[in-house]
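So, is this right?
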Amino acid sequence: MTDTTNQKAKVRVRPKEEFNFFQDQRVRSVFYQVVTAGIVGWLAWYLISNTATNLELRGMNTGFGFINSSAGFDTDFKLIEYTPGVGTYGRIFMIGALNTLLVSFLAIILSTVLGFFVGVMRLSPNWLVAKVALAFVEIFRNVPLLIQIVFWYIGVFSLLPVVKKSIDLSLGAERVILNNRGLYMATPVPGDLFWMTLVALAVAIGGVVYFRRRAHAKQEKSGVQTKTLLPSIAAIVLLPGAVFLATGMPLEWDVPVLAGFNYTGGTSVPPAFLALLVALSIYHAAAIAESVRAGILSVNRGQTDAAMSIGLKPDRVMGLVIIPQAMPAIVPPMISNWMDTVKNSSLAIAIGYSDIVSLFMQTALNQAGYAVEMVGMTMAFYMFISLTISFFLNIYNKRVQLVER
């Protein structure tokens, strides 16, 4: 009896919990979130209503009806059809957006390739190569991008030879012509059966991907390495080439021809586009090079020694061992760099390239007068592109992080 009483005394009795609305952590959390959302919503409503009232008092137009109104001006560079006086402001927005995406996409590709190359050169044991790469990084990274854009436009492309003394970059074939009015290129005009060549190319690429995966799986399983570069190139070249020849070579070229004071035909690119592309590519390549250098240095030196000890050549060590392990450190800053490339393309307004800022937020705004709406649409465009880049690169970043583990 005494033992039972002692055991009951040892059992701790928890006090009964009482619900207190103001002290409960879950209630406070939800309450603060609701209050914060309410304050943000009220501020947004106040800002929008106050702006609309002020615009109405000043007699300024509001709304998005202008998108379907005809625009009375033209542009020197466009990727889609547009007729002044017939095309709408919505069409102008699309032209500006496509022009921005085109130069940004090409600049991202070129800056990434060049940045990786220069970043690896920075760590070269050759003194001259390393110092040249260092000079490239320090010069172009520390000069403001706007100054570089103006330099390439005024100091390089505007000083190219005149039309009658154009530079033939195709070595006499007159397929690629460069002068102070821009770059003129022959445009392919596909025939009726050219789609078969494209199908053959797609099949070849699919076969190459399958072949390389099989080779990689075989190497993972047995350690036997299969050479895939030359067979892959042969498949991509020979299969579409055979189909192209068998279908009668259904492809013609619209070649630029000198007519009067300028070239006609083909595809032309204005000097502003070339200057912007070169400046964006070089400037952001310098930043990517430093990210690549830092990522490579983050990999332990023992990884290089271990790879060299099993007979791998230096280029294979870098491509198969070092770079894959460095990618988790390279990708995060590269995300910001790619987004900055798109946003920095807006500096094209300084040299007159028809991007979305120059074409839509300046020329169209001055003509139509819907300032708040046009500025808001431009901001939404840049935000959407930046978030899209961030979304996909974050997915890739998670993959390389998992691979590292």
